[in-house]
Amino acid sequence: MNEIAIMLLAPIIAGVLAWLLDIKRVREIVGVIGAAVPLIYIVQTYHSVFNGGTISLNVPVGGFTLSFALYNLTWFFAAIAALLGFTMALGMTSTSKDGYEWLFALMSMTGVLGVFMAREFVSFFLFWELMTFASFMMVLKYNRGASLKYFILSVIGAYAMLIAIGILYAKTGSFEFSTIQQFMYQDATKTALGVKGAFGKSETILLYLLFLTAFGVKAGAFPLHVWAPDAYSETNQSYTSFFSGVLSKAGVYGFVLLYSMMGIKLFYTLGTFGGHSLFAYTIAWIGALTVVIASFLAVLQEDIRKLFAYSSVGQVGYVLLGIGVGTQLGFEGALFHALSHAIFKGLFWLVVAALILQTGKTKFKDFGGLARKMPITFAFGLIAVLSLAGIPPLAGFASKWILYEAAISAKMPLVAGAIFLGSGLAFAYVVRFLYAVWFGQMPSDLENVKEAPLPLLLGMALLGMLNLVFGIAPGLVTKFLNTIFGHEVITGDIYTINTGVGNYNALMVAICLVAGIVIAGVLFLYGAKTRKVEVNDTYQSGNPITQDFNLSIRVHFYKPLEEALSFWLRISFDKLYTIIAKWVEDFAEVLKNAVYNGNVQSYAWYLGIVLLILALWGW
């Protein structure tokens, strides 16, 4: 059987079997096997794809041909999905409650793999909806309100995409990405020459806005991000590692498709602003705002799930920012960070899943001192903290460094500033997670907490190892990404990357850091004078902390920042959308009462008016 067919069918078949059998241990074994199959095939096809090979699958269905292809770009995104799908399954062996969760978790895996490998809009849209439906069902089980918000915004995005696809088909007569791309290129040439093309300015702008809405919703981009914090935090946290780490990348992949199909047309139609393509500049600033706003909101959270939910939104903003820079270096940085985000945020959510599983707690105020009880989980959490905060030599630093270099080389200093600000805020909230959860005094009700189960630890180990490998040897990623562009955008060996603006030697940085840690450890053990102090023997700004004013990192630690931002925090798109929804509901109620009033004479008038309009139109 074709490799693509096996990769698409294995997860959903395993999910159905796990749901039907619903026998503890049996469903877990079936689910893990189903999630492992795509990863095995991804690994097997690496050399073929790296050397320029393509694997295709065409399936005739009802007058259409569903077409899929695995080549360097689609392989990259499918590899992220396969990897996170497998680690999700390992986590779910400990955190899933029944076959229902296995069914929809693995169904969403099939859906997102289909999205990444589709090469025409029919299969792309069908698998997009399968992915969305499955993830909606996962959220629905845990929180009806969060699932409803996710459903409404997903429907808006889906209809936006469907309208855009309809317009493209009406003009081009094809659903094929390659055909549409060629058509748009020819139309852009006409526009550049001042000749009227098939797509006028208004139609081109409409298509751009429709796709921006559709892909922006799934990516969780500002201001369409309002569904993500609740949906990410209100479901099985092992599944959230996949939900946040992979399904958001479907929106990112959509932006990449938008560039490849319509980039030249949008450039000639919309023109430039400040020396940058206007349509790309817009995406860059959407990404920058997403980074900054979501990071500020993450800092203020008191629940670890909400903190990492907002953090997930913010980190995807980096990817959009890189895409919006519009250069090949920006794209390569964006793709690298898509991978980095998947592996460090997937690791974070598995750590959160382990914490909730073993303690039953989610608030910072209820944690403390768990490094002694869960040392292995703490070690993996520390790796995730360093990678997310952009500390070398982890993968998160390498990808953010490339993004910063891309913004500087493209002469976008404010966008580059957003990268720095976002990284600073990320450090602020992960440091709080580090200290509040793992260090300090342990609450008495956590004395019997045990280490996370082995399957969860195996999932963490795989993602933690990749954060180290891709951080110390970033060339492993950039060499593959170079094949997408057909030449070396980033040069160097596996340990060194050279962007043309700067040079980064990850191995040398790693050696220096290890040497520094060893020296500091020796000095601490043999040279430092230490003494034991009471828990309350601490100071803030030179003043002793008293019972009257006991500021703890576990309780409202960033309250002063919240007070400083109080004016801006009153501006809420979530509240705005709620108000708009209420207006629509009230209008629909008035319309229903006016139109469906049960009066036969009214219905006769409606019919007469419709017939008159049709007659005036010549029907």
Provide a compact summary of the structure:
The protein has 24 helices and 8 strands. The chain has helices at residues 3-21, 26-44, 46-50, 72-95, 99-117, 121-142, 144-172, 177-192, 201-219, 228-233, 237-270, 278-299, 304-325, 328-359, 375-388, 395-409, 413-438, 454-472, 475-485, 506-526, 559-564, 566-569, 573-595, 600-616, and strands at 55-61, 64-70, 272-273, 276-277, 496-498, 503-505, 539-540, 543-544.
State which percent range the strand residues make up.
under 5%
What can be said about the biggest beta sheet?
2 strands, antiparallel
Quote the average pLDDT: 88
What assembly state would you assign to the polypeptide chains in this entry? single chain
Ends apart, CA distance between termini: 52 Å
User: What class would the helix/strand composition place it in?
Assistant: mainly alpha
Q: Can you give the helix content as a percent range?
A: over 70%
For the record, the count of structural domains works out to 3
The total beta strand count reads 8
Explained architecture:
The chain has 3 domains: about 1-190 and about 220-225, no CATH class; about 270-530 and about 550-570, no CATH class; about 575-615. The chain contains 24 helices and 8 strands. It has helices at about 5-20, 25-45, 45-50, 70-95, 100-115, 120-140, 145-170, 175-190, 200-220, 230-235, 235-270, 280-300, 305-325, 330-360, 375-390, 395-410, 415-440, 455-470, 475-485, 505-525, 560-565, 565-570, 575-595, 600-615; strands at about 55-60, 65-70, 270-275, 275, 495-500, 505, 540, 545. Strand 1 (about 55-60) and strand 2 form a beta hairpin. Helix 2 (about 25-45) packs parallel to helix 5, helix 4 (about 70-95) runs parallel beside helix 14 and helix 14 packs antiparallel against helix 18. The longest helix has about 35 residues, at about 235-270. The protein is globular and about 95 Å long. The termini are far apart. About 50% of the residues are buried.
